[in-house]
Fold this sequence. Notes:
Elements lengths: L6 E4 L1 H5 L9 H13 L4 E6 L12 H7 L7 E5 L3 H9 L4 E7 L2 H8 L3 H17 L3 E7 L12 H13 L4 E6 L6 H14 L5 E5 L6 H10 L4 E4 L19 H11 L7 H15 L6 H12 L6
Parallel strand pairs: 1-2, 1-8, 2-3, 3-4, 4-5, 5-6, 6-7, 7-8
The structure holds 3-hydroxy-3-methylglutaryl-coenzyme A and magnesium ion (MG).
GO molecular function: hydroxymethylglutaryl-CoA lyase activity; metal ion binding
EC number: 4.1.3.4
Pathway: Metabolic intermediate metabolism; (S)-3-hydroxy-3-methylglutaryl-CoA degradation; acetoacetate from (S)-3-hydroxy-3-methylglutaryl-CoA: step 1/1
Amino acid sequence: MIPAKVKIVEVGPRDGLQNEKEFVPTETKIELVNRLARAGIVNVEATSFVSPKWVPQMSDAAAVMAGIERRAGTIYSVLTPNIRGFEGALEAKADEIVIFGAASEAFSQKNINCSIAESVARFEPVAKAAKDAGMRLRGSISCALGCPYQGEVSVASVVDVVERMKALGCDEIDIADTIGVGTPKRTREVLAAASKVFPRERLSGHFHDTYGQAIGNIYAALLEGIEIFHASVAGLGGCPYAKGATGNVATEDVVYLMNGLGIETGIDLDQLVDIGDFISRAINKPSSSRAGRALFTKKRDGVAACA
Ligand code: HMG
Ligand code: MG
């Protein structure tokens, strides 16, 4: 049954901006996070405590976390690949830490420089430390619907990583289509299989839109009863370790879809459209949100956009 309410996790400040070549000023990142939370986003992935050698754009993680306003009830998440990252997250008082592995060996090597098994071993102390500190723990599984290096990824290998993440104590697990190759049929198969080993209501769909399938995949995921979706405002992003992959599905498009389906998100679409315009101007790139562009044009010109 399709859920009546969903949680949208806004990943634009992290997944969206991490791939920008030009350094985005810390003040812009802070304003982005603050505006998103004010628009009703209850979970914002704010930044990453990763190696600045690997992802220079996230090198201001501590300053971003120190500068944002903390709205009561909003979860501010950060990525932490190792204990060093966890210490940064703890110091910054993040609400949730995200460990990130992959269902593909090849991608694991390229993204975090170790095998899947090594990554799980590296996450163990991080997961334990998060639990001891009373922080929420989320596990993200890249390449769940295909890999840029090895191609096909089996459903069994996704389920295997879901089980490993579950054993680490993850509160939520993301099924991520890193390069946006998935289609609705495969999405349903993977989510149905994952739901057999982990509670469906704590699984999320993280779809990139490279092949234009993300909204279709979200609808497919809704049919599987999934209630948590990741999106990035203006469709920001890509992945530094998945060349050619475009950004996440745009938050404006997802909220437009949910509004049309009568599914509650708690997000003000009008504000979101303005935020999409703000960040697109700030990084000097056109928004890739179809709904965002149409609604912005309609607001500005007072007529419906037709192209
Ligand atoms: P490594 O080079 O194997 O490890 O990197 P290392 O321990 O040798 O560290 C290298 C250098 O980084 C050292 O500095 C460390 O001190 C430093 P040096 O001694 O050479 O001066 N370092 C750190 N600095 C700050 N914070 C840290 C940290 N750790 C080490 N936490 C490592 C291994 C995991 C650190 C590296 O590969 C890394 O940081 N990778 C991050 C990759 C990344 O952020 N990818 C994008 C996010 S994942 C994603 O986008 C997918 C997702 O959206 C879902 C989907 O769509 O698929 C979540
Ligand atoms: Mg991603």
